[in-house]
């Protein structure tokens, strides 16, 4: 898979520092940033009359440069500032801007607002008067663009430090930051685009991107395409959703245990004892937890699954049982079981912990030796080795019953086809979101499986 790096504030400063050490000046970086902002504004908004609000630091300097480039394109542009620039590069950018600079308190709104007040590294709230003024100017604009990050957002965990308007477009300078994808800040960012300023950095934190999935070849057969076993429990519909999703996600053979009925004719139902079923060494992934139940029989089923030695995808009730009875059966398995908790299940398993969602997910994965998919509006996947991936925003319509069961089945299919645990979780999560986008508003979980073939076709 290709994945864009995500840089924390410290990582971004280090990447820029390496450029500067190699001979690129701060002024040159600011020139690239401002030029990129102007070009993006021109393309995105056809650059109507524009107001750029500039803060005292280098983010404000980017705004002065953008104003100069927009003016050169013939755009009627005004600049308003909170005060005089405080860095050498920003002062130089201000000097190169030949137009007037208004006081932000006196500035009138414009059809396009570009926010260059504060970017990466903000640690404290905006002054209440300034936050209110930014909000008023945003309310008076038809389109709003944030440069690097909306002012008032914490870079590394997406916390809202002070009132933040909703922007139509956020231009990440050099690289994505965690706040672009983590909630609640992500919903303020609107569309995202990265402005290339020459930063080249690798990161253990990345965005989940469209996976590259090979189509079956002439030598493939149903078992080489992936054999998924879904374990049925008390609520049979949940396991059926997972099994159907695994089929539609490309698994060549899906076996659903238990005595239930219904589903595609190609779904193999098996009422034999679970231990006997799990002895089949061709099984590439076992999905357990959807509709499992939480009683003694469910606990016995889970114990059999944990003893099977097969690659695991554990969801829903299986996670509650692990929280109640312990995770000893999971720890330090070399195949890295995949756990898919939502916020409540995560807290029950791992406690509230410290830090943001990325830090908590990374700590949980390391502690358990498992791949953790911490679900939500900003789903995060963590590997025990420290790698973390954040998903792009998925449709809010996914907040409905059964969609998590579908996700477990998709991931099971990805794991069974031979992807490693982390990659399988990333691929499954991307396909889940893409199927939801294709299903459209008011979807129900059953709809997702129907749109999986088209989502997979987009990954060829």
Characterization of this structure:
This protein is elongated. The chain is α/β, with parallel strands linked by helices. It has a 10-stranded mixed beta sheet with strand order 8-17-16-15-14-13-12-9-10-11, sandwiched between helices. Helix 10 (317-325) packs parallel to helix 11 and helix 14 packs across helix 15. The chain is built from 15 helices and 17 strands.
* Lateral arrangement of strands in the main beta sheet: 8-17-16-15-14-13-12-9-10-11
Helix content: 25-40%
Please indicate the percent range of residues in DSSP E strands (runs of 2 or more): 5-15%
CATH architecture of the largest domain: 3-Layer(aba) Sandwich
Q: What is the CATH T-level topology of the largest domain?
A: UDP-N-acetylmuramoyl-L-alanine:D-glutamate ligase
Low-confidence stretches: none
CATH top level class name of the largest domain: Alpha Beta
Count of distinct strands: 17
List the helices and strands and how they pair.
Elements: H1 9-21, H2 26-45, E1 50-54, H3 58-72, E2 77-81, H4 88-96, E3 101-103, E4 112-116, H5 128-139, E5 143-147, E6 169-173, H6 186-189, E7 191-195, E8 205-207, E9 227-230, H7 236-248, E10 253-257, E11 268-270, H8 274-278, E12 285-288, H9 296-307, E13 312-314, H10 317-325, E14 338-339, H11 343-350, H12 357-368, E15 371-374, E16 380-382, E17 388-390, H13 403-416, H14 421-439, H15 445-457
Parallel strand pairs: 1-2, 1-4, 2-3, 4-5, 5-6, 6-7, 8-17, 9-10, 9-12, 10-11, 12-13, 13-14, 14-15
Antiparallel strand pairs: 15-16, 16-17
Helix pairs in contact: 2-3, 2-4, 3-4, 7-13, 7-15, 10-11, 13-14, 13-15, 14-15
């Amino acid at each position: 898979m290709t994945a864009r790096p995500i840089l924390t504030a410290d990582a971004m400063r280090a990447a820029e520092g390496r450029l500067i050490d190699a001979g690129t000046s701060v002024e040159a970086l600011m020139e690239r940033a401002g030029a990129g902002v102007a070009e993006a504004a021109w393309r995105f908004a056809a650059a109507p009359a524009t107001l750029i609000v500039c803060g005292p630091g280098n983010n404000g300097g980017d705004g002065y440069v953008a104003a100069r480039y927009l003016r050169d394109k013939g755009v009627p542009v005004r600049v308003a500032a909170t005060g005089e620039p405080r860095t050498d590069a920003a002062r130089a950018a201000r000097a190169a801007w030949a137009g007037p600079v208004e006081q932000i308190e006196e500035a009138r709104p414009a059809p396009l607002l570009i926010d260059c007040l504060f970017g990466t590294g903000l640690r404290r709230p905006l002054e209440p008067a300034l936050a209110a003024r930014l909000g008023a100017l945003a309310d008076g604009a038809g389109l709003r663009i944030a440069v690097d990050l909306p002012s008032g957002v914490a870079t590394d965990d997406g916390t809202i430090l002070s009132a933040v308007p909703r922007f139509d477009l956020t231009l990440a300078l050099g690289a994505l930051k965690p706040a672009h994808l983590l909630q609640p800040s992500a919903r303020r960012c609107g569309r995202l685009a990265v402005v290339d300023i020459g930063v080249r950095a690798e990161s253990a934190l990345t965005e989940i991107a469209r996976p590259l999935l090979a189509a079956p070849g002439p030598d493939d057969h149903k078992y080489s395409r992936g054999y998924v076993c879904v374990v049925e429990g008390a609520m049979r519909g949940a396991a059926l959703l997972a099994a159907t999703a695994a089929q539609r996600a490309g698994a060549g053979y899906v076996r659903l245990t238990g005595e239930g009925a219904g589903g595609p004719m190609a779904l193999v139902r098996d009422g034999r004892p679970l231990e006997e079923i799990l002895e089949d060494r061709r099984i590439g992934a076992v999905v357990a937890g959807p509709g499992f139940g939480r009683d003694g029989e469910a606990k016995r089923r889970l114990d059999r699954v944990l003893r099977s030695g097969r690659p695991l995808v554990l969801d829903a009730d299986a996670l509650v049982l692990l929280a109640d009875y312990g995770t000893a059966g999971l720890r330090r398995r070399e195949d890295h079981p995949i756990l898919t908790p939502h916020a409540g299940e995560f807290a029950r398993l791992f406690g509230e912990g410290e830090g943001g969602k990325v830090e908590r997910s990374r700590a949980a994965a390391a502690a358990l030796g498992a791949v953790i998919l911490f679900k939500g509006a900003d789903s995060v996947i963590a590997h025990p080795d420290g790698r973390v991936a954040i998903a792009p925003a998925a449709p809010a319509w996914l907040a409905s019953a059964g969609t998590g069961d579908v996700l477990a089945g998709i991931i099971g299919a990805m794991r069974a086809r031979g992807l490693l645990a982390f990659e399988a979780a990333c691929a499954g999560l991307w396909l889940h979101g893409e199927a939801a986008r294709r299903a459209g508003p008011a979807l129900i979980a059953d709809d997702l499986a129907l749109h999986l073939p088209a989502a997979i076709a987009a990954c060829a």
